[in-house]
UniProtKB/TrEMBL annotation, chain A:
Main location (coarse class): endoplasmic reticulum
Family: Belongs to the TRAPP small subunits family. BET3 subfamily.
Segments of this protein annotated with the region Disordered: 1-36
Protein's name in the database: Trafficking protein particle complex subunit
Polar residues composition-biased segments: 1-20
Top-level taxon: Eukaryota
The keyword Ligase is assigned to this record: no
Function according to Swiss-Prot or TrEMBL: Plays a key role in the late stages of endoplasmic reticulum to Golgi traffic.
Subcellular location: Endoplasmic reticulum; Golgi apparatus, cis-Golgi network
From TrEMBL, chain B:
Keywords: Endoplasmic reticulum, ER-Golgi transport, Golgi apparatus, Transport
Keyword Transport: yes
Highest taxon listed in the record's lineage: Eukaryota
Source organism of this protein record: Lithohypha guttulata
Family: Belongs to the TRAPP small subunits family. TRAPPC4 subfamily.
Subunit: Part of the multisubunit transport protein particle (TRAPP) complex.
Main localization, broad class: endoplasmic reticulum
Cell compartments where the protein resides: Endoplasmic reticulum; Golgi apparatus, cis-Golgi network; Golgi apparatus
Xref: Gene3D superfamilies: 3.30.450.70
Stretches for region Disordered: 23-44
Name of the protein described by the UniProt record: Trafficking protein particle complex subunit
Entries under Pfam families matching the protein: Sybindin
InterPro entries reported for this sequence: Longin-like_dom_sf, TRAPPC
Xref: SMART domains: Sybindin
């Protein structure tokens, strides 16, 4: 760690132009600090346009292998099935927080490439939030909307998002002794992150309800906290959409 | 369905999956009284094999496959008569002559037995790069067994290899794999 402090500060400061250094046109990576490789023009991933990866696609097999390792990693550390789901949930949670911001940024005129989009309002009520998840979030992640959205008749604070073929479950068959586990707990974590980020505290869990046609059909149960329901009532009363 | 059975053998030679598929006549019980039990490898009219028999079969086949890989005939490189029949294995370079021997296609890797045909069945063998062997027993008139076995290998790579609960060379007991096989083999 015998680096002079000036080079360490260039690593973390905004990439424009400390010490009079101009970014060069080449992007050869060079060692700017202890292990973090930064291209010579000092542009990191944070400087990329957020819309650059808008239509990017990822190979399904890469995701499947990565997810398989995540499951194996979780399996080594847990003792019970509910811990397992909690671990996967925790891995998806930060994704949800960031995806919410990305989604809203991309639909605002500042972020979108088309000029005709109206500014997206942050969802203030439960139904707009859930439609955001069903449509926009799902389309961003899986290129298709979720299959349906239902409200529990017995308990109005519980909603159910249904997915017939969650991507996490396509290649994974859970053994019999862990049959209550659904690896879609990862997606449940993403949904929970989105809801919490939007200010609607909740708990999301994934339940496997396979049918003959859709053996991997999963129900994501979204259970909102009582404070959220009270606020809903108040907003309803005031007529806020 | 002209596909009789599928066996999967691990790299070490142990049987990790076997499945006999019912032949089409046994599916419809309304036909004439004879119930052809799916016997040896699904061929009607033969005695059925126990699981132990399948294990022995797999182990034997593994050995045979390795042997055939080593006795793959070579051609006499200088001779002009290397047309249809390669020389018998007994003349494999034991004579001490200066001529060299080479494989028919020098660049292709040497493999073991790839197919075996009889008047009752046709066996197609596919060995993956990692040494896992897939044996497919079909009707001798069945075309495109290569395409079939490729499809099976694809589904193996999907539903078995991407499953965190299956470790390499373990017996395969996975619902997703069975479902995918059913869809693939019965849908055609």
């Amino acid at each position: 760690m015998a680096k002079p402090p000036s080079s360490a500060s260039t690593m973390y400061s905004s990439p424009t132009y400390t010490q009079g250094s101009r970014p060069s046109s080449s992007s050869n990576p060079s060692f700017a600090g202890a292990g973090l490789r930064v291209p010579t023009n000092r542009k990191t991933i944070y400087d990329r346009n957020l819309n650059r990866s808008r239509n990017a696609e990822l190979s399904r097999a890469s995701f499947a292998f990565l997810f398989m390792e995540m499951v194996t990693y979780a399996q080594k550390k847990i003792k019970s099935v509910s811990d397992f789901e909690k671990k996967l949930n925790e891995q998806g949670y930060p994704l949800g927080m960031k995806l919410l911001d990305l989604l809203l940024y991309r639909s605002s005129p500042a972020g979108s490439s088309s000029s005709s989009s109206t500014p997206a309002a942050r969802p203030l009520r439960i139904l707009p939030l859930l439609s955001l998840i069903n449509n926009k979030l799902y389309t961003l992640l899986f290129s298709r909307p979720a299959d349906s959205l239902e409200q529990d008749t017995a308990d109005p604070s519980k909603y159910m998002i249904i997915d017939n073929t969650p991507l996490t479950n396509t290649y994974i068959s859970v053994p019999k002794e862990m049959s209550q586990l659904s690896v879609a707990a990862f997606i449940a974590g993403i949904i929970e992150g989105v809801c919490d980020g939007a200010g609607f505290q909740c708990k999301v869990s994934a339940h496997n309800q396979g049918t003959d046609v859709w053996p991997n059909r999963t129900v994501f149960l979204v259970a909102f906290e009582s404070e959220v329901m009270e606020r809903e009532k108040e907003l309803e009363r005031q007529g806020v959409k | 369905m002209p596909v009789f059975a599928l066996l999967v053998i691990s790299k070490a030679g142990s049987l990790i999956y076997h499945r006999t598929l019912p032949t089409s006549t046994s599916a419809s019980t309304s036909s004439s009284g004879s119930q052809p039990a799916t016997g040896t490898l699904g061929l009607p009219g033969t005695t059925s094999l126990t699981t132990n028999d399948y294990l022995v079969l797999a182990g034997t086949f593994h050995g045979v496959h390795a042997i055939t890989k080593n006795v793959t005939p070579k051609f006499l490189a200088n001779s002009a008569s290397s047309s249809d029949h390669p020389p018998a294995p007994t003349t494999n370079g034991v004579t001490g002559k200066a001529s060299s021997f080479r494989y028919p296609i020098p660049d292709a890797p040497v493999t073991g037995i790839e197919s075996l045909e009889s008047s009752f069945f046709k066996l197609t063998v596919f060995q993956s790069l990692t040494g896992t062997k897939f044996l497919l027993f079909t009707d001798p008139s069945m075309p495109n067994t290569d395409g079939l076995i490729r499809g099976i290998y694809d589904r193996f790579a999907d539903h078995v290899c991407k499953n965190p609960f299956w470790h390499i060379d373990n017996p395969i007991r996975l619902d997703g794999w069975e479902r995918a096989l059913n869809q693939f083999l019965f849908r055609r």
